[in-house]
Amino acid sequence: MERGAIPGMAVEDLRNGWTDQDLAHARIVARLRARGHTLERIAEAAREGRLAYGPVEQILPGGEERMTLDQAAEATGLEPDLIVRIWTALGLPRELDRLSRSDVEALKHVAAALAAGLPDEAFLQLARVYGQALSQIADAEVRLVHLYFHVPLMREGVSSAEIAERMQHLARDLLPLATPIMEHVHERLLRHFIEQDVVGHMELDVDDEEHLSGRVRTSVAFCDLSGYSRLTEEEGEEQAFSTVERLIEAVQATLPEGGRLVKTIGDEVMIVCQDPGALVDWSVGLMSFFPDRPRPRIGIHYGSVLYRDGDYYGRAVNLAARIVARASGGEVLVSGDVVDAVRGKATRHLRFENIGEIKMKGFSRPVVLWRVAAAEQ
Fold first, then answer.
1. Does residue 9 belong to any structural domain of this protein?
2. What's the structural domain count of the chain?
3. Strand (E) positions, 245-349?
4. Where a domain ends, among 153, 177, 203?
5. 218 bridge partner residues
6. Which CATH number do you get for residue 327?
7. Domain hosting residue 320, numbered range
8. DSSP string for 169-200
9. 355 dihedral zone (left: phi>0; alpha: psi -120 to 50; beta)
10. DSSP class of residue 375?
11. Which residues form a coiled coil (predicted)?
12. Are residue 120 and residue 228 in the same domain, yes or no?
């Protein structure tokens, strides 16, 4: 306190008691000290307002009475080992002997979901998806508020106490809005994917053996920017990334019915779609949005993939990734399996050019590739 580690707090203030904000700052100081930071360095960071985000923690649940893992198991009816697996799948901190009342209430919802008939393995996969998605959301919320709210206040020279107060007010205003927004988006997307699943079962041949093993037959596309590394060197990271953002926005805005953006990795986008013809159509059309360098390139394969934890794995995915690596900017390359799947359908507006058998890294047999473009009018 005397060294300024807790802003605005002096020894004589102890007579009047500690405020919630003081206690929150004290917890932050204790954590930073445990990580080896000196009081002088902590005090400097506090004066600069860099620790002002910390007191927001006190308006979040989790500070109440704690329970042990065995107590949680008794309260929920879940086996301790299953609770550990669920907690790990969700990616939550492994503080299983310090579970809060709200943690236990959440586990009761899990127990109800399992009691309703959802298999343990299915729930664990859902838990991994929930954990990964919500971790990304929470990380984005913190980082974006930091970049667009916290840092500007520091640059303006606002006092650390005022920054902390503004941050708390912002959190109190925004947190109650996050849940209903996410609930609405979840319900809308759930309705969409239920519709897609029903349509998919009607239009595609269902292989019972594949479905029982967690496999689905779908088309997989990878799309990235040709020459992205060189663009980064020539134009700088921010300019290059703005091009990536434009690509991702174009993909999201134009995806065909039934198409889904699975993930982005750097400048690369992975897409799945049960209808290979629609995915090929979309890929050729996407090129018209990027007439100038750097242009996207796309590789597509159609086959059986393993579905786990909201993602797709297996030979078909690996092959699609290899195919895009063989494409040039502005090109759409597809495997022979894609051509076989769309043969006889309405593809007169497209031109398919057989470019021969290509040896792919990691694959024992060459793969026949086709270049697809819009047919000349």
1. no
2. 2
3. 259-265, 268-273, 296-308, 311-313, 332-335
4. 203
5. 303
6. 3.30.70.1230
7. 205-374
8. HHHHHHHHHHHHHHHHHHHHHHHHHHHHHHHH
9. alpha
10. P
11. none
12. no
158 and 226 in one domain? Answer: no
In angstroms, rounded to a whole number, what is the distance separating the alpha carbons of residues 269 and 245?
11
Q: Is 335 helix (H, G, I), strand (E, B) or coil?
A: strand
**Alpha-carbon gap, residue 273 to 283, rounded angstroms:** 12
Nearest to 268 by CA among 309, 322, 215, 316: 322
* 153: three-class secondary structure by DSSP: helix
What pLDDT, on the 0 to 100 scale, is given for residue 202? 45
The predicted-structure confidence for 273-287, as pLDDT tens digits, reads as follows 989 999 999 999 999
Task: Tell which residue, 174, 176, 149, 177, has the closest CA to residue 164.
Answer: 149
Q: What is the mean pLDDT of residues 56-66?
A: 64
Q: Which of these three, 180, 203, 226, is where a domain ends?
A: 203
Q: Which two tokens stand for residue 44?
A: 């400097």
pLDDT band at 19 (very low <50, low <70, confident <90, very high): low
Asked whether residue 54 falls in the same domain as residue 187, the answer is yes
Q: For the chain, give the number of residues.
A: 377
Cβ atoms of 302 and 219 within 8 Å: the answer is: yes
Tell me, yes or no, whether 360 and 211 share the same domain.
Answer: yes
The verdict on 214 and 305 lying in the same domain is yes
pLDDT of residue 162: 83
Are 164 and 154 in contact by the 8 Å Cβ rule? The answer is no
Residues 64 and 155 grouped into a single domain:
yes
Helix (H, G, I), strand (E, B) or coil at 6: coil
332 and 365 in a common domain: yes
What is the rounded distance in angstroms from the CA atom of residue 302 to the CA atom of residue 204? 13
Question: Is the Cβ–Cβ distance between 334 and 299 less than 8 Å?
Answer: yes
